[in-house]
Specification:
Length: 177
């Protein structure tokens, strides 16, 4: 149990504050923050501690625009100052789960630094291989996710309405009664 309730409350607040941002200012993200975010990504849990991932940070405008053009729902990547790309080893049994945990760590870490972000799917998408090739990533890896990140253009935000906890949870056994 965490002895310092302030730390626990801070973590919960960060998680609950996270929301998708799709419109970014062109302000660059400092390299030290990018490095710390990547450090959080590599700290994600992975099955048998295999850590089957590699992480790319794409800051080059031309490359981000090319990635955005390839995606079906990530056109805003071109506008973001950075795009994180999460790749995982194809032959690892739990690569999707492991890399999604790392992706979530990136999203939460960015929120902690006050940086907006949006997760764009990669795994299984028709653009996954073209993006892997565009970035020169070895064939042993497959694209799992992309994360557009940057300072939000809009001041303040409205959290997306979430379902009530009572409507999405059960204890011990599920029952409609």
């Amino acid at each position: 149990m965490i002895q310092n309730k302030n730390i626990a409350n801070f973590g919960v607040t960060i998680i609950q504050a996270r929301h998708s941002i799709r419109h970014f200012k062109d302000t660059p993200i400092p390299e030290d923050i990018i490095r710390k975010v990547l450090d959080c990504a590599k700290s994600a849990p992975s099955a048998r501690n295999i850590q089957p991932w590699i992480f790319g940070t794409i800051t080059d405008q031309t490359l981000r625009s090319q990635i955005a053009d390839l995606t079906t729902h990530g056109k805003f990547i071109a506008e973001a100052p950075v795009c994180f790309a999460v790749f995982g080893e194809r032959d690892q049994e739990y690569v999707l789960e492991d890399c999604c945990a790392a992706t979530e760590n990136i999203l939460i870490a960015l929120t902690g630094y006050g940086i907006g972000s949006c997760w764009v799917a990669g795994e299984g998408k028709e653009y996954a291989e073209p993006i892997r090739k565009l970035l020169g990533v070895p064939e042993k890896y497959k694209l799992i996710s992309l994360i557009a990140a940057g300072e939000s253009k809009t001041e303040g935000f409205v959290l997306a309405k979430k379902k009530l906890l009572a409507d999405i949870t059960f204890k011990n056994r599920f029952s409609n009664e």
